[in-house]
Amino acid sequence: MTPSLPANFLSGVIEGFYGAPWNPEERSDLLQHLAESGLNAYMYGPKDDLHHRVIWRQPYAGRELSELTNFIRQCRARHIHFLYALAPGLDIHFSDPSELERLKERCSQLLALGCEHIAVLFDDIPDSLSADDRLRWTSPASAQASMVNALWTWVREQAPSARLFFCPTPYCERMARAGLGGPDYLSILGRELHPAIDIFWTGPEIISREITVAHVREIGALFQRPPLIWDNLHANDYDGRRFFCGPYTGRPLELRGEIRGILSNPNCEYPLNFVPLRTLGRYVQATGAWNEREEYLRAMGEWQEHFDTFRGVIDLDDLVRFGDCHYLPYSEGPEANRLFKLVHHLLASHPSTWGASAGEFLDESRRWRGFFARLTELTHRPLYHALLRRIWDLREEIDLLARYVEFKSRPGQADLPFQSDYHLPGTYRGGMITRLQTLLNRQPDGALASGVAW
Fold first, then answer.
1. Which residues are catalytic?
2. Do 140 and 26 share a structural domain?
3. Residue from 133, 134, 207 nearest 173 by CA
């Protein structure tokens, strides 16, 4: 039995990250994944599609037009709602009437292709108006609402069943409290934006650990409508070293009754999103208690078939341990925490006291080494290539720790300095970014302090 959610409740994916957009084959595979996971929507809005943001006034043509047309047809065939997002905020002139006409022209092409719904995004832009626009509006919220309301009226004349979606400039609580967009931005927006237009919201933060019922009710009061959650829980475009394959979590099941829907903006690398999307689908459909760990293990078991090699499928326990090292932005999984505690215990004590703990870690490091070797043999090469950088980085760290423990465990070497011939200065943890990261240190309370002696 599935929960009684409104028929217009949207659940699915936003391709809304910074980075290389997904290719047609990946999007086709995504539609099957959405259908299998019980999700019903996809929004096209990759930040690095120039037509989405930088050259938003220019319609599609040639190969890009053909690919978009074909994908919209695939969405309709699978009964997946297709939303197209335009992001004109970098350079739009609200007081210029021709700008609204350009928005209409873009939307006209999209509606003609079969696009069901339109989103207009004003995220990640300067939060001030031009001199000409300030002569008419005192707030960016008023200028944006005026433009989008006019577009909404026109869109409904062209396509009566279409919905319009809006992303505000302050799209999380922290941004709003910092005053982004000017005084009372959200209140003005809620009051002036047409009530039929849905508003995106990411929660307390851009990447929110939790989104509570109380929080969305408070935001809904400001918006004068329930928000539509743009969820960045599994997004990784802000840190290319990481990806997140943990479960959908930190959102109580009761949240579903307080919002217009949930769209996940996930990992940039399409092949890494199996578990996040599968668990999101089960969250949307869940009727009882939500056990995130059980759902994670269940989804990892289903993902395992993608990890076939020329010598058979990767062991599920090894896959879970690897996934636990790439779990969620604010936490690792239990197996990763166990590994960290074991290594931390060794490094925080004198080698003479290590006892069996050293052998336990060395045995584990050998198992990791074998796992990394198996991953290089994956038959699903796009999956391997998406994982490669993360495999390499984790392998290097575990290998260095194993060499250290082996060295210090030898008789007479516990107090000798350790060096690795495989982890040399400049080639290991080298580069400008690493140097810059040494200059400010994170304190236990979250504050940043100089790591350079005065």
1. 124
2. yes
3. 207
